[in-house]
Amino acid sequence: DAGITQSPRHKVTETGTPVTLRCHQTENHRYMYWYRQDPGHGLRLIHYSYGVKDTDKGEVSDGYSVSRSKTEDFLLTLESATSSQTSVYFCATGQPNEKLFFGSGTQLSVL
Amino acid sequence: GENVEQHPSTLSVQEGDSAVIKCTYSDSASNYFPWYKQELGKRPQLIIDIRSNVGEKKDQRIAVTLNKTAKHFSLHITETQPEDSAVYFCAVFTGGGNKLTFGTGTQLKVEL
């Protein structure tokens, strides 16, 4: 969808280990977003970026950090994974007040 | 932060009937309201959106209505078909248009 690639697609890790998820876009969109999706909660915003090196927190940012060193790439890092971070993670790109395009998602399991 | 409430959480209709999903929001400055459809195991995809300068928008069997005064908007699907079965999310741009906040979703099931 709109040239958005998430990697990995699936990951199983252990509690306490660091994890990095990658989102890569080819659309030159200024804004990039990381959401997590859990049953009963819909899609909740973790962090977003409005330009290279410009990021801000969403509603569920605790335990997560992000970095954007290039327009194309937005990284989400779990410094020390916990079981509560088991979820499906979606990256999205777009412009303010316009359609967002979503990646295929990453299924993360923290055991 | 922005509060987006969506109802109902589940909706079951007979094929050919209409389905209506409602959302309310709190940020009076919001002016763009998209609806996303998510099939099982897939990514969310935009199906229709509306801006605050219009009250209704239609696209074939789907329509969205907006009441800015009351701060609510609704998705209407007519002549439902089995392929309409999915989870539907409303969303609102907040934070000056920077952040897209989603409702909690409606599981729509269209029964034969």
Question: Which tags fit this structure?
Answer:
heterodimer; A: about 110 residues; mainly beta; four-stranded antiparallel sheet; globular; B: about 110 residues; six-stranded mixed sheet; five-stranded antiparallel sheet; about 0% helix
Q: Any overview of this molecule?
A:
The complex is a heterodimer of chains A (111) and B (112). Chain A has 111 residues and is mainly beta. In chain A, 0% of the residues lie in helices and 59% in strands. In chain A, strands 2, 4, 5, 6, 9, 10 and 11 form a seven-stranded mixed sheet that branches. Chain A has a four-stranded antiparallel sheet with strand order 1-3-8-7, with no helix packed on it. Chain A is globular and about 35 Å long. Chain B has 112 residues and is mainly beta. Chain B has strands at residues 4-7, 10-14, 19-25, 32-38, 45-51, 56-59, 62-67, 72-77, 86-94, 99-102, 106-111. The chains are: A mainly beta (111), B mainly beta (112). Chains A and B meet through strand 4 and strand 5 of A and strand 5 and strand 10 of B.
Sequence stretches where pLDDT stays below 50 over 5 or more residues of chain A:
none
The percent of residues in helical segments of chain B reads under 10%
Count up the helices of chain B: 0
What is the makeup of the main sheet of chain B?
6 strands, mixed
Strand and helix order of chain A: EEEEEEEEEEE
What is the 3D form of chain A? globular
What is the number of E strands of chain A?
11
- Estimate the global geometry of chain B from the Cα principal axes: globular
